[in-house]
Amino acid sequence: MFYRLKTDLRLSIITLLGVSGLVGITPFAVMRFLQGNMLAGVVDLAIMLSIFSGMVYAWVTGDTARSGFFMAVVSASGAVAVGAVVGEPGLFWLYPVLVTSFFLTEARYAIFINVAAVVALIVHGVAFSSSVQMWSFATTAVVVSCCAYAFAHRNENQRERLEHLATVDPLTGVKNRRSMDEELTVATSVSARNGISQGLVLLDIDHFKKVNDDYGHSVGDEVLKELVALVQQNIRRSDQMFRFGGEEFVLLMSGVDEVGLRAVMHNLQQIIRRFLKHPGGSVTASFGVAVLKAGETPEDWFGRADVALYRAKETGRDRVVYADDIDAPATSGAPA
Ligand SMILES: Nc1nc2c(ncn2[C@@H]2O[C@H](COP(=O)(O)OP(=O)(O)OP(=O)(O)O)[C@@H](O)[C@H]2O)c(=O)[nH]1
Fold this sequence. Notes:
The radius of gyration is 30 Å and the shape is elongated. The chain has helices at 2-7, 9-34, 38-61, 64-86, 94-104, 107-124, 131-167, 177-194, 208-215, 217-233, 258-275, 298-314, 323-327; strands spanning 198-205, 240-245, 248-254, 277-278, 281-282, 285-291, 320-322. It folds into 2 domains: 2-167, no CATH class; 177-327, 2-Layer Sandwich (Alpha-Beta Plaits). It is α+β, with helices and mostly antiparallel strands. Strand 4 and strand 5 (281-282) form a beta hairpin.
C-alpha cells in the first residue's frame, strides 16, 4: 500500500483528497444538518460519497486517470455548489480544488474544470457581496491556477525525465537491462494469454575489447552506436532492443515464428558483417536465439538464449546459434 502511494503521485493525491475531504467535510455536513440547512448538508454528503467512491475505484482498479478526472469534476462541482448555497464562506473551498485539479487530471482538463468552476460562481453571483469582491476572487483564482499549472507541469517533466534516465541507456538510446527484465515478464504473460510466439536474441560483438584497445574507447562507443542504428533499421518497429551491458544487446521479437526468426537473423548477420566497421575493418557479432516455450519463465528463456550465445562464441564467433538446436535430443538412428 505504501509502495503504491510512494510511486504513484496521482493515486497519492486522490487518496489525500479523499481522506482530507472526508475528514474536512464531515463536521460541516453534521453542522449543517444540525442547523437545519438541509440543502447544504445534502450537498456536503453527496460530495463526500462521490469523493469516497472515486478513491475506492482508484485503489481497486488502479485506473487513476479516470478516477482522477472524476474527482476533479466532483470536487469542483462540490465547491461551486457550496459557494452557491452557503455564500461567501463557501468560496474558500474553491482554492484547494483549483490546485488539486492539476494533479488529479491532465492539464487541459484541469484548465477547463477550473475556468468552468470560476465562471459558474461568477454567473451565479449570489456568493459575492460586491463586484470588487467578485473580481478579486476571479483574479486570485486565476493566479492560483497558473501557479498550480506551472508546478504540476514541472513536476510531470521531472517525473518523465527520471523515468527516461532509469530506463534508457545514455550512450545508445536503447532501453536498458532494467526495462528488459520488465518487458520479458510482460512478453511471457502475453504469450501465456494469447499464444503469441516470442523470440529472444542475445547479440554480442566479437573481440570488442580489441577494438577499444587498438583504436580507443571513443571508437568503441561509435561502433556500439552504429550497431544499434543498423539493427534498428532492420527490425520491425514492434521489436524491442535493449542494451544488456557492455557490448551485449538483447532483441525481443513478438509474433515471429521459427522460420521468420531464422530469416531475420540471417539478414541481421549479413548486414552487420557488411556495414559495421571499425578503422581497421569489419566488426562481427555472435548471436544466441531462443523462442519462448509454453510455461517457461523469463529467467529460463533468457538462460537458454545465453547458453546459445555461449555456444556461438565457443564455436568460433560470427554465427547464430538457436537454443532449439542445442536442446534437440541427438538422434541415435537405432531401430526402435
Ligand atoms: N567503448 C566502449 N567499450 C565498452 C563499453 N562497455 C563495455 N566496453 C568494453 O567492452 C569490452 C568487452 O570485452 P570482452 O567481454 O572481453 O568481450 P570481447 O572482447 O568482445 O570478446 P568476445 O565477446 O569473447 O568476442 C571491454 O573491453 C569493455 O571495456 C562502452 O560503453 N563503450
